[in-house]
Design a protein that fits this description.
alpha+beta, 31% helix, binds glycine, Rossmann fold, 23 strands, Dna Ligase, domain 1, binds adenosine monophosphate, single chain
Length: 426
């Protein structure tokens, strides 16, 4: 079953990386991206579409074989359900299965029921019982808005007074609807890893690992962002650890979702804490990571279109897709001021010189193009990504590309990959 006409939904660096890799699948005829961005247009036709109805009409008119949904919001809104009901093949989970990302309490309850290792927790719908639960807990403790809060709904409270204040703020509506329910959980110590698995409702296969850098500043300082850079593979993920993650976390979640009548099809992105007691789940996401995907896609050594189509059709092969053994590293260039207020509209020059460097791909995350002119429109704007024989070599190549780009209004972290490089050099 060949797929040759694919529509990708989204506009970020993740979607650029997916389109770029899909364009290399054998027999690919046409890729559209809605809405796309200034870099995506080099590998796909960018189209402006509205809600599910216009997407369905577009797919019918243009004979799209497969829709790949990048971001979580359309999944949570039920876009995959609408497409499947219309008979259109889609890579991405249903609205109810997307609760694995849209409700932290849902995921914690699933973990409890299916014995998936995660932080001990309580789930609360009103203030008094949450405050009562805090008595007798150990601190720091983690307080989370249940719903989607643009990555901001997680507070680590150092002591009981701050924990109580946070609980009150959340129930007073700090995150709107998202914090009508909250989860309070044990603080886990360890190193964080992003782990990806492709799922077809019945089966799951590993799809690479990565380490993200969420803080805005060097040395992991400053505000949290969507991710300032990533590298793949996560060098601490030995084959034994990866096996444990599949057996203890991914497969039980898959089977649990099926048993609950909500089979999960798409990519399951497990945010893990590698603790002294082994890997534990921090959270699930129901879509590819950004910027992890930029690093994963330059390493993927397989036919992405065929793999995603197989997952969508419920017949994923048992063997995981192949990745190149080299390391890949992505450095995000963001507009000065991000993740607070930043300006849009500055011009980016010299992208061609950076992109021409060996082993380098510059993915666009927030740009528009007018002819040859590229303008920044987002917080995270570019992802300079490079392959290298190890993380240190990939890091050098990625920063050479960064330094070739002429964009005074942008900035980046200078230490992406530091944990792996520290391990490498001892
Ligand atoms: P989340 O949105 O659930 O991924 O949480 C955002 C960040 O908060 C994670 O990437 C972790 O760095 C941190 N975090 C969340 N839950 C815990 C936990 N139980 N223990 C320690 N850190 C946590
Ligand atoms: N890079 C983390 C995420 O995509 O949520």
């Amino acid at each position: 079953m060949g797929v040759s006409r694919i529509l990708v939904i989204g506009s970020g660096g993740r979607e650029h990386a997916l389109c770029w890799r899909l364009a290399q699948s054998p027999g690919m005829e046409k890729i559209w991206c809605a809405p796309g961005n200034g870099g995506i247009r080099e590998v796909a036709e960018c189209v402006t579409l509205g809600g599910a109805d216009t997407i369905i009409a577009f797919c019918r008119k243009h004979h799209a074989d497969l829709v790949v949904i990048g971001p979580e919001q359309p999944l949570v809104d039920g876009l995959a359900d609408a497409l499947r009901e219309a008979g259109i093949a889609v890579f991405g989970p249903s609205r109810v299965a997307a609760q694995l990302e849209s409700s932290k309490g849902f995921t914690k309850d699933l973990c409890a029921k299916y014995h998936i290792p995660t932080a001990a927790y309580g789930r609360f719908e009103e203030e008094a019982s949450a405050i009562a639960y805090l008595k007798g807990q150990r601190f720091p403790i983690v307080i989370k808005a249940d719903g989607l809060a643009a990555g901001k709904g997680v507070i680590i409270a150092p002591d009981r007074a701050e924990a109580e204040a946070t609980v009150r703020e959340m129930f007073a509506g700090k995150f709107g609807e998202a914090s009508r329910t909250i989860v309070i959980e044990e603080f886990m110590e360890g190193e964080e890893v992003s782990f990806f698995a492709l799922c077809d409702g019945d089966n799951a296969v590993e799809f690479g690992s990565a380490q993200d850098h969420k803080a805005v500043g060097d040395g992991d300082t400053g505000l949290n962002t969507g991710g300032m850079g990533a590298y793949s593979p996560a060098t601490m993920m030995t084959a034994a650890l990866r096996g444990q993650v599949m057996e203890r976390i991914i497969l039980p979640a898959m089977r649990g979702m099926k048993a609950e009548g909500m089979p999960f099809q798409g990519v399951l992105f497990a945010g893990l804490m590698i603790t002294r007691d082994g890997p534990k789940l921090i959270e699930f996401n129901v879509r590819f990571g950004d910027p992890e995907t930029q690093a994963l896609m330059v390493r993927l050594d397989d036919d992405l279109a065929a793999i995603l189509a197989a997952a969508a059709a419920g017949n994923l092969p048992a063997t995981p897709p192949r990745f190149r053994p080299e390391a890949a590293l992505c450095v995000v260039l963001a507009a000065r001021g991000y993740p607070d207020v930043y300006e849009k509209g500055s011009e980016i020059r010299n992208l061609k010189a950076a992109a021409a460097m060996p082993g380098v791909v510059v993915f666009h995350a927030g740009t528009v193009a007018e002819g040859e002119k590229i303008t920044a429109t987002g917080g995270r704007v570019l992802g300079a990504t490079a392959l290298g024989r190890d993380v240190a070599a990939a890091q050098q190549a990625a920063y050479r590309a960064v330094d070739a780009i002429d964009w005074p209004e942008g900035f980046c972290r200078r230490d992406i990959g530091w944990r792996a490089i520290k391990r490498q050099t001892g």
